[in-house]
Every structure is written in structure tokens, then in C-alpha cells.
Amino acid sequence: MKLFYGEQVLIKENNLLQPQIHTPLGIIEFSLTVSDHFYHPEQSYKLKNGGSLYKYYYDSFDCELVVCRPKLNLAIHLTVEECWGAVFRIKPHANTQISTCSFSASWKEGYSWTDYGSNTGEDLEAVEYENQVYRLHLGTQDGDMLMARRNQGDIL
């Protein structure tokens, strides 16, 4: 099942690594836990325009993770050195129910941030990490927004 639709050409990768983003502050890894079981992607692809697609196809569900650089439309006085996005989509198979599902982003050992704190906003849950040179924001839509998207059939 293809959960992300598009005309993008996929380039299959042979070495299947844990999905991750390399940042100036360290490596952020993405993980999937369904009904208290940790799952690894079964296939990964490089996207023609950059980024990666990871496929998790199991007996009770299909899941896909896209990691890419989204286009930003910032006000002229704002600057961002780099921006990455990661979106999981999951769909249980017919007559299957998922009791719990968790998508996680965590720092791999060796990170270089020295301070962190909450940095939320309207419809946003986020954490800010920083050292003397860089500031990194890691966040998602808040619970209410995620549930609203689910209720609209967004396969989130």
C-alpha cells in the first residue's frame, strides 16, 4: 500500500539504517512502536529531489516515513540555515486494531547541545536545543491538532 502519493522517482537503498537526520548538534533518530513492539523499516529509498522514504509493511499495519527538506516561506527578517521534516503515516489492515502507536525522535549518543527547554506555540509542541553556535527546534503539532487530522481521515 502506498500511503504517500506522488510522481517522485524512488531509488532503492541497500543498507537499511535507522531513519535519522544529521544536524550540527548531533544525530536525531526516528522510531516506530506499535502495541508495545519496536519496528524497523523493511525498505528504504532515496527520493530524487533529496530526502528518504522508509516503508514498514507488517502483518497488522502499513506505515511509511518520509524525511525531507520542505520549502520554507519565511518573513524577510528571519533566517533558517536548514530545515527538515519527518512525517509518519500508518494504516491498520482490515479487521485489525492498533492499541497504541508511538512515533519518536531521539538524540543519538554524542550530541553537542548544552541547553534545552520548551518552545511551544499555537497548535505546536516543541523543544529548543542549543549550544554556543546553533539553536535547533524539534516539534510536532499538538495533541488536539493531531486528533483533528485523524478524525478528518488524514491517516496520521
Explain how this protein is built.
It is a single chain. This protein has 156 residues and is mainly β. The strands form 3 sheets. It has a 5-stranded antiparallel beta sheet, with no helix packed on it. Helices cover 6% and strands 46% of the residues.
List the keywords.
156 residues; mainly beta; 5-stranded antiparallel beta sheet; 1 helix
A few lines on this structure:
With 156 residues, the protein is mainly beta. 6% of the residues lie in helices and 46% in strands. The chain is built from one helix and twelve strands.
Number of DSSP-assigned strands: 12
Measured by DSSP, the beta-strand proportion falls in over 45%
Detail the poorly predicted runs. none
> What structural class should be given to the helix and strand makeup?
mainly beta
Tell me the overall shape. Answer: globular
Can you lay out the helices and strands and say which pair or pack?
Elements: E1 10-12, E2 20-23, E3 26-34, E4 37-39, E5 43-47, E6 52-57, E7 61-68, E8 85-92, E9 101-107, E10 115-118, E11 124-130, E12 135-141, H1 143-151
Antiparallel strand pairs: 1-5, 2-3, 3-4, 3-9, 5-6, 6-7, 7-8, 10-11, 11-12
